[in-house]
Amino acid sequence: MQSIDNPTVESSSQKKEPERGAGETASGALRAWLDRRYQLTPLFDFLSHKQVPLGVHWMGWYYLGGITMFFFMVQVVTGVLLLMYYQPGEATAYESIHFLTTKVPFGWLIRSIHSWSAHLMIISLLLHMFSTMMLKAYRPPREVTWVSGYLLFLLTMGFGFSGYLLPWNKLAYFATTVGTNIVRSVPVLGNWLLEVLRGGQDVSINTLYRFFAAHVVILPLAFVAFIGLHLLLIQRQGMAPPLGEKVAPRGMRFFPSFALRDLLLWLACLMVLAALAVFLPYGPGIPGMDWELGDKADPLAPAYPGIKPEWYFLWEYQLLKEFPPHLFGLEGPQLCLFVIGILFVIWALIPWIDRRAYRDKPSPAFSDLGWAAILFLTYLTLMGWDVGAHHDAEQLTSMQEVARVCAWWTLAAGAVVILVRSWRFGHRWFILTGAALLQVILHGLIGVSYLLAGLISFVLAAIAILVLLYFRRSGADAAIST
Amino acid sequence: MRTILSIFAAGAIPLSALATGQTPAATDPKLVAMLEAKDANGKAVVSPEERTYFMGLNDHLRELLNRAVQQEVITSPQHLHSLLALQLRPQKMDLLLQNNCVLCHSDPEVQSGEDLFSSAPASHDSPAYMNLKDVVEDVHFRSGLSCAGCHGGDPTAQLGHNFVKEWPEKERAHNRAWVVQFCARCHSDPTFMHQFNPSLPTDQLAKFKDSPHGITLLVKRDDRAPQCISCHGVHGIRPAKDPQSKVYAQRVPETCGTCHANPKVMSGFTRPDGSPLPTNQLAEYRLSVHGQALLARGDLGAPACNDCHGNHAASPPGVAIVSRSCSTCHSANVSLFDGSKHKQAFDAHSWPECSKCHGEHAIKKTNDSMLATGPGGLCGDCHRQSAKNNPECVMTADYFRKTIHEMSETRDKVTKISDNLAAKGLDVEAINNQLTELNDALKKSRTYVHSFSRNTFQQTAAPGEEAIQKSKTLVTKARSEYKFRQIGLAASIASIGLLMLAIYLKLRQLEK
């Protein structure tokens, strides 16, 4: 075929093909063969000289991106295998998954690994994102890498949300109904967006078709594009050296040292995945992390109590519950979406907001912001999980009782965070962590409403930061005048 | 929030404007004055909610109110307040406002004591049956029969008590036999009753007359015996299907117990054998399987007193007909019993069939230990006493018990194992199918005990015994599958581990 299309090229290359020398190995010959056609020497040179910076911080943070990518690859492979049996449709979606898990050899294993890998991917992605944030690896020139990673995070959330409905079981149906209902609160476009998302006013089989298309075509295409960009930028710019050092004092060769270590970790992850899939095939049994098929979705059945979204959406779900129906003339959910939107935008723009890291200087305030965000999410997630509620369904637990138990857990976590940061890393900037913990105390222990507690904490933190800035400015002026 | 809105709405519309003809139905100034009246403490007599309710009334109802005020049937703000406070739907308010009997008899300025209808009878020293809230819910009132339907007179006239001739002027409270005849004027007339409820029987009086209750009241002239209003109430009579009715299934035991659980009322009444009539039936029933089902679980299919004893012809089911009462629901058991050897034996001893083993009002949930042949076992005790401990019977009973016990135990055990295997991700559909088979066979077998025949029982239990074997085989298969998974996992982990070791060694070699 090639000779018909381009006989000239074929014949000229054949002419130039040299004989293999007596001492040349097969791999060397192959490399030479490829190099003549694709000029790979500069790429090989680049890769052989590529180094991973070794600095003051723990090397382990560098592997989290690779682990996340490994879980994504597992998702692709198991997803394709699932696709061979899955049939979207009112009378087939649930049935095909049921058939797959009960009758198809190793079908249960594929579904279990797909589900476990999805959750582990989100865990490793969150760890990767927060470690990048704490190490200030987003600082110039890696702002776009941060943004592309952030978009990958959003796409992963989309994967989770769209994949949840596909088995068309009862839990998925109601969780999707509750989840999609949130977009109704978007001003002006809310109803239209809801119809676009659901393919009608209610969650129906049209919604399943849409979610299926998104889960197996739209999101993977977008994900591959952004992961390509993310990897390209990382390869081009290298991994971020420790803060304050343009070039790392020492490094580790990417090939083969780092890559083989990566591979070792991937294999370890594969081991963990296999063990989890065999011993806990339906998840650990925690609400929001449980994928037992249960009953088929029935749009006419009444919703049952205790429907919760996946664990990584719990904080948003809980925040929505903390907003009253109406506030400042707006609907509560609308305002909540606005607040969530602001938080997401701030997170995306951190490389530009963090001016000290921008100038390659330590920025303790933003490290503190990262920890404050973790505590903020922890408290909301624990409340969303009803930690502290009675397990007996007939014995109702008050919201305040749940909040109190969650507050103690969050405060304990906060105390550990502050102690470790203070003693181990010598951190001295705790204003935002303090504000997050103050909100927890006010809401969980004293009983002030969540929003008021948040407002008080926010105002006090703002005052503290302004006072700090004022004294710093005065100190600097005094130093200049003397 | 609704209250706040209603207060706001009532305050926002000046009531005096109503009298000026600004609304389609002009309000009588006297009525306006009543709506705006204040008590000695300066507090509005008619509450904001009641005023809002008034504002929502249609022209017709306002006109009726105007007329009642003009004709001085409604005479005071307190009277108006008591009517508006009922917050009746328009149809009911229409009936009320066209009924001068109730209007006049609900006016505390004009009536008192036993003649006054009030929403809080106790506070006016009125009897409980003069409750205004009850009378507007009465089935007769809702059908448009009103007071005159029973008492006579003209409800549209302003005055006059032209009582029907059947209404006893005196001794109404002491000789209650008249009540039965009084209600029967309509309730025994099929043509009349057909206008209101064609499906309602009209034989209540005929049944009652021949019942022990009827004989006691009408022949023995004993006023302790119940008549219509004892069970149905007086002015607040509701259909039997209404959960607030005194004869609603779940309230029947309490209604019957008003007399039957009261030793004072029941003293002197005896059973056919001359022994005193007990008064512990209600207490026993409440703890029984039927009482628990009806009263605790709300299962309206469970029997109340009337389902076994009858309604208007209520009587104790005699020895010979106990099983007929039970067979209304437990037909299969009774049918099997009728064809068994026990039937003749029980007849010979004049034993009341079902209740001999299961009891009367204190029927407990059956259990398999009832089949025990040793001391304390139901079968054993009775047979030793009355059947000279026939070895064949003992063997049969032992076989029943052993088979049922095995099925029951296996079902419980396999159900647990199945749940456990399902949690491990194994396909337990086939096991669960066998469990369903086993459960069906177990239920049937328990019923077929009443055949007291080994062969008949064996045929029913056979599918259960087969299901036991099949489920055990399937459990073994599922366990093997799980073992295979564990071995597969171990092999995979070992392979991956070896690969990791190789990579690690290569890494060390490279880094040297």
The gist of it:
The complex is a heterodimer of chains A (482) and B (512). Chain A is mostly helical and 482 residues long. Chain A has helices at residues 2-5, 7-16, 26-38, 41-49, 64-83, 93-102, 107-134, 143-165, 170-181, 190-198, 205-237, 254-279, 314-322, 332-348, 350-353, 355-358, 364-384, 399-425, 431-446, 450-481; strands spanning 51-54, 250-253, 326-327, 330-331.
Segments of chain A where pLDDT lies below 50 for 5+ residues?
1-15
- CATH architecture of the largest domain in chain A, please? Up-down Bundle
**Strand arrangement across the biggest beta sheet of chain A:** 1-2
Could you give me the name of the CATH homologous superfamily of the largest domain in chain A?
Cytochrome Bc1 Complex, Chain C
Question: What's the CATH C level of the largest domain in chain A?
Answer: Mainly Alpha
Largest sheet of chain A: 2 strands, antiparallel
Radius of gyration of chain A: 27 Å
What name is given to the CATH topology of the largest domain in chain A?
Answer: Cytochrome Bc1 Complex, Chain C
Sheet with most strands of chain B: none
Strand content of chain A: under 5%
Please state the overall shape of chain A, judged from the principal axes of the Cα atoms: globular
Indicate the radius of gyration of chain B in whole angstroms.
Answer: 36 Å
Structural class of chain A: mainly alpha
